[in-house]
Automatic annotation (TrEMBL):
<dbReference type="InterPro" id="IPR011642">
    <property type="entry name" value="Gate_dom"/>
</dbReference>
<dbReference type="GO" id="GO:0005886">
    <property type="term" value="C:plasma membrane"/>
</dbReference>
<feature type="transmembrane region" description="Helical">
    <location>
        <begin position="535"/>
        <end position="557"/>
    </location>
</feature>
<feature type="domain" description="FeoB-type G">
    <location>
        <begin position="9"/>
        <end position="177"/>
    </location>
</feature>
<dbReference type="GO" id="GO:0005525">
    <property type="term" value="F:GTP binding"/>
</dbReference>
<dbReference type="InterPro" id="IPR027417">
    <property type="entry name" value="P-loop_NTPase"/>
</dbReference>
<dbReference type="InterPro" id="IPR030389">
    <property type="entry name" value="G_FEOB_dom"/>
</dbReference>
<protein>
    <recommendedName>
        <fullName>Ferrous iron transport protein B</fullName>
    </recommendedName>
</protein>
<keyword id="KW-0472">Membrane</keyword>
<keyword id="KW-1133">Transmembrane helix</keyword>
<feature type="transmembrane region" description="Helical">
    <location>
        <begin position="597"/>
        <end position="618"/>
    </location>
</feature>
<dbReference type="Pfam" id="PF07664">
    <property type="entry name" value="FeoB_C"/>
</dbReference>
<dbReference type="Pfam" id="PF02421">
    <property type="entry name" value="FeoB_N"/>
</dbReference>
<feature type="transmembrane region" description="Helical">
    <location>
        <begin position="282"/>
        <end position="311"/>
    </location>
</feature>
<feature type="transmembrane region" description="Helical">
    <location>
        <begin position="367"/>
        <end position="390"/>
    </location>
</feature>
<dbReference type="InterPro" id="IPR050860">
    <property type="entry name" value="FeoB_GTPase"/>
</dbReference>
<dbReference type="GO" id="GO:0015093">
    <property type="term" value="F:ferrous iron transmembrane transporter activity"/>
</dbReference>
Length: 623
């Protein structure tokens, strides 16, 4: 049965311009939860989902990166072309191309569909976002459009319940009637002349089938008048980012206290039930203390993601890219680097993958190399821990929280150094030609969809907790073992940890780290912290918990570290490549280990230098 189904399964490829709603359609067709966002370049890989039509036909639906033309210019667009042309070994050639068009913006779609027709594959033309088109009074004569194109045409609203009925029906009709076998289409890259001819034909079809009312000024236009204003726009962007970091700090406090109290209670409970000894130390110091010290940052991470998800859905991201283009261009960065870099605030891994939208190899490489300097969410625990231990909780400059201000400064340090590295790379590569002009689709503003934002938050929360329960948990077990054994000999005075393997390892590394003000406890935290940044926090928590009597890791730090050490530690974490997964992705996306080593080397060098300077300058100022 299953094998018969697999044989009968039809391959359906979703093709269309960026941001026309392909992934929304994919999710609606297959019940998947792939990432959707109101900007171009959300999808950079091919994704396959399986489903059944109402009449029971089995489909394998392939979601693809958006492209304006099969004349692919960047790695993500190349994926789309290869799948459409059946050139990929890992994907069967499509039996049907579902050409997704944004009904409010048909001009480009009508050109792309002609390129697709030349491939000889059966096509269904979908007018997506028909809700918005109707709302704007755009009238599309579907029958006429179908006649002009010589293709079946159907309208859809991918994000509404019931918005896909016509599409399902049409799919069943087409499959039921038997899809035409693909004609042996010989696709050749169209020349500029032939593309112009295709565009003329597209304009003719557009004029024949679509009437749009003259649009005086849409809401998007009016809002953009302000948000893209040369002076007001950047001020707004800066204020927005600033508000975001204040919110991350101030907004999360109550929830964090709650989680802290929860873990405190759990610790007390275990202390009461389990007799003093190794088991209690393992449970309280290793597991509850270590893992708890990381989980406590969940609220902050969620607030940050809430901002990012809302901005993505609203359609502000591409505007921010537009505003930053001048500054980024001056630093030798391609305008399209903005969204990959912005994604890196969440995590460098999706950010590095998003760099696939950049066509030029050197531009892409530079973006990949600096993406890890953006402050990813795994740094939040590290930063927050140090800030809450060393920066007083007071307001300055009339109401701004000092802690939030320092956090903002750390983010700024990451951004500024990324621009600096990019500039240095540009000078080193000796490239003087002007950067390519930024061709950016500015999507219309849309109200964020609650369900999508909630889903996005849930996915982040789950990923974070899963990491805490697996990677970080395992690391904690190892660190607790290292910090506990071998047990001190009889008659040993002073903290037991002094005789442990951890202390031995730490002392071994200490001379290397002494010039930057790090003690041996930090050395112990840095080594496992290579795997993932949060582990350093958990490791510090465990090492100090095993060693001592302080109530919390923050209190232990503030009593044991000098301010200079704390600042040097922050400076280290702005730069240090403490994340194996990021390095692995750099290797994969650049197609070799070389650039991974370059990233590793330059980031460690910067980290050491920054920590060294910070430590000595802070000491000179008496910290
Ligand atoms: N109102 C309305 N919004 C839609 C519709 N389809 C998609 N959207 C919204 O349009 C935006 C883009 O949707 P995506 O599904 O990410 O578009 P995509 O074509 O996959 O984009 P890329 O992966 O960047 O090429 C999101 O904000 C969606 O919520 C629709 O039919 N109606
Ligand atoms: Mg997509």
């Amino acid at each position: 049965m299953a094998s018969k189904d697999a044989a009968a399964e039809l391959q359906i490829a979703l093709v269309g311009a960026p941001n026309c709603g392909k992934t929304s359609l994919f999710n609606a067709l297959t019940g998947a939860n792939q990432r959707v966002g109101n900007y171009s370049g959300v999808t950079v890989e091919r994704k396959i989902g399986r489903t059944r039509t109402p009449a029971g036909f089995a489909l394998a639906v392939i979601d693809l990166p958006g492209t304006h033309s099969l004349r692919a210019r960047s790695p993500d667009e190349a994926v789309t072309r290869e799948v459409v042309l059946g050139q990929r070994a890992d994907t069967a050639p499509p039996d049907l191309i579902v050409m997704v068009a944004d009904a409010t913006n048909l001009r480009g779609a009508l050109r792309l569909v002609q390129e697709l027709k030349a491939t000889g594959r059966p096509i269904l033309f979908v007018l997506n976002m028909i809700d918005i088109a109707r709302h704007r009074g755009i009238r599309i004569d579907e029958a006429r459009l179908a006649a002009e194109l010589g293709l079946p045409v159907v309208a859809s609203t991918a994000v509404r319940r019931g918005g896909m009925e016509a599409l399902w029906t049409r799919l069943d009709e087409m499959i039921g009637a038997g899809l035409p076998a693909p004609r042996p289409g010989a696709w050749a890259e169209p020349s500029a002349t032939s593309l112009r001819a295709l565009q003329r034909e597209a304009d003719r079809v557009l004029a024949a089938a679509v009437t749009a009312p003259p649009r005086p000024r849409t809401l998007t236009g009016r809002v953009d008048g302000w948000l893209l204003h040369p002076v007001f726009g950047p001020i707004f962007l800066l204020a927005l980012l600033f508000a975001m970091f204040q919110a991350v700090f101030a907004g999360a406090a109550p929830a964090m206290e709650l989680i802290d109290a929860g873990f405190g209670l759990a610790g007390e409970l275990v202390t009461r039930v389990v007799p003093d000894g190794l088991l209690r130390s393992f449970l309280v110091d290793g597991i509850i203390g270590g893992v708890g010290s990381v989980i406590i940052f969940l609220p902050q991470i969620l607030i940050l993601f809430l901002f990012i998800l809302l901005l993505e859905d609203l359609g502000y991201m591409a505007r921010a890219a537009f505003l930053m283009d001048r500054i980024m261009g001056a630093a030798g960065l391609h305008g399209r680097a903005f969204i990959p870099l912005l994604s890196s605030f969440a995590c460098a891994i999706p950010g590095i993958m998003a760099a696939r939208v950049i066509g030029d190899r050197r531009d892409r490489l530079t973006t990949i190399l600096i993406a890890p300097l953006m402050t990813c969410s795994a740094r939040i625990p590290v930063y927050t821990l140090i800030i809450s231990a060393f920066v007083p909780q007071k307001t300055v400059l009339g109401g701004l929280g000092l802690q939030g201000l320092v956090m903002f400064g750390l983010y700024a340090a990451g951004i500024i150094s990324a621009l600096g590295v990019s500039l240095a790379a540009r000078l080193l590569f000796r490239r003087h030609e002007a950067a390519a002009p930024l061709m950016l689709d500015l999507p219309d503003y849309k109200l964020p969809r609650l369900k999508g934002v909630a889903l996005g938050l849930w996915q982040r929360a789950w990923a974070f907790l899963r990491r805490a329960g697996t990677t970080i948990f395992l690391a904690m077990v190892v660190i607790w073992l290292l910090a506990t054994f071998p047990l001190p000999p009889e008659g040993h005075t002073g903290p037991a940890i002094e005789t442990s393997f951890a202390a031995q390892i730490g002392h071994l590394a200490a001379p290397l780290l002494a010039p930057i003000g790090f003690n041996w406890q930090i050395a112990v935290a840095l080594v496992p912290g290579m795997a993932a940044r949060e582990i350093a926090v958990a490791a510090l928590a465990t090492v100090y918990a095993v060693a001592g009597t302080e109530a919390s890791v923050a209190m232990a730090l503030s009593s044991q570290w000098s301010l200079a050490t704390a600042l040097a530690f922050l400076a280290w974490y702005v730069f240090a490549p403490q994340c194996i997964s990021t390095l692995a992705v750099i290797k994969r996306e650049t197609g070799g280990a070389r650039w991974m080593w370059v990233a590793l080397g330059y980031m460690f060098a910067l980290a050491y230098l920054a920590a060294f300077l910070t430590y000595h300058i802070a000491r000179a100022f008496g910290a």
